[in-house]
Amino acid sequence: MLLLAKNEKILKMANRRDRIISSNRRREMDIMRLIPRNSYMEKIINVIGTPDIKVITGVRRCGKSKLLESFKKYIDENIQDANIIHINFNLPEFEELLTFRALYEHINSLYKENMQNFVLIDEVQMCEDFEKAINGLHASEKYDIYITGSNAFLLSSDLATLFTGRTFEIKVFPFSFKEYVRYFDLSDRYEALSSYIKEGGMAGSYLYKDPEAKYDYIADVFDTLIVRDIRQKYKIRNTQLMDRIVDFLMDNISNLSSARNITNVLGSMNEKIHHTTVGSYMQYLCNAFAFYKIRRYDIKGKKNLSSNDKYYLSDHTFRYAKPGTRNMDYGRILENIVAIELLRRGYEVYVGVLYKKEIDFVAIKRSEKIYIQVSDNISDDKTFEREVSPLLQIKDAYPKMLIDDQIGRASCRERV
Questions:
Q1: Close Cβ partners of 113 (under 8 Å, ≥ 6 residues apart)
Q2: Are 318 and 250 in contact (CB under 8 A)?
Q3: Nearest in space to 13 (alpha carbons), one of 365, 378, 377
């Protein structure tokens, strides 16, 4: 049995905005703090010396470059015979290496015998035909290779095509709630959650003290993602349709969606569009880690369902940083946070279906399985029973959880 917190609200919604900035925060800092991202570092450290090409992926500005810098520091401090060849294509001193042959020859010129030769390349896609250089270096079997790059050019689905060698992908997400608490050194977890709901995990925004400036930064990150990582990669001509699909998915976080129902909604606006085009655009958004698609799972039949999925943003603050979508919906935001946290922890995540009732999440990892319901307010008995009832109908012995953002009284139900 798992204890279920059924408690009073942290704050009334009308007062939440006023409590975003706590007096005990370290908001006076003028430079970005770096905190250890231990779960990602552990994954990278565990594959040191393997023959794989290590590829760090994730949404724009989620911390891929900083992670690579932290890994370089780890090598410096812990591996005595390391020869580190570090190239950051954001810096002008590497401009002469923007062709694959120049990059390949430069790295080979820095190779040292009888040492562990590490190749760390940031923003590798800026080098023309970069995959030729990486494949050549990998084929020589002399280097331990780690790369980051734009989502448009290092899609998970493209890695096997780009590289002839086996790849190991490290999937990086924006700051989790735990990382957010650590960054600001917060002690009151409940007040911290209220702030995290508003501020999210895009750490670059933390430097801005004005809330509007924060949201402008977050909106700019998302706009750049759409323009550079999607429109340019896929040569999107109907940019207005792409924008409307983004708006629809943002407005319908946690709702079941499909290319056909989006087509029907947008098509009612006297615009000729085809559901295959809409489906392709939705896939592009997922490829660039703007959204994550969560499929439905038949709990009784133990099989995936093909129709209708849910889409969650890689960071929930994108939803109300964009103009026209600033209205807060705490239930949907909390559900988005839980979905991304489960993905961050390496679970396969599904929407559960049982006897025409829905379980928000079925999280599976090897032999582990967890059923989860999410609600922002279960203080009302009817709401509480509605949320817990589907969990009680599941007859297996796997853990069942109801997550809410309240504190105070505690309650439990059999098997929940």
A1: none
A2: yes
A3: 377
Render pLDDT for 241-253 as a digit per residue (tens, 0 to 9): 999 999 999 999 9
- Closest alpha carbon to 387 in 405, 372, 370, 409: 372
Q: C-alpha angle 315/2/342, rounded to 5°? A: 20
Rounded to whole angstroms, the Cα distance separating 226 from 204 reads 18
**Residue among 265, 252, 374 nearest 319 (CA):** 252
Measuring CA to CA, how many Å separate 339 from each of 40, 102, 143, 173, 370?
Answer: 18, 43, 37, 12, 13
For residue 412 the two structure tokens come to 């439990």
Cβ-contact 360, 332 below 8 angstroms: no
Closest among 356, 332, 314 to 176, alpha carbons compared: 314
From CA 136, how far away is CA 346, in angstroms rounded? 31
Concatenate the DSSP letters of all residues of 324-357 into one string. T-----HHHHHHHHHHHHHHHTT-EEEEEEETTE
Distances (CA, A) of 414 to 114, 119, 373: 62, 54, 15
160 alpha carbon, distance to own chain's centre: 21
Q: What is the pLDDT of residues 42-69, one digit of tens each?
A: 999 999 999 999 999 999 899 999 999 9
Quote the CA–CA distance of 272 and 278 in Å, as a whole number: 11
Q: How many residues does the chain have?
A: 416
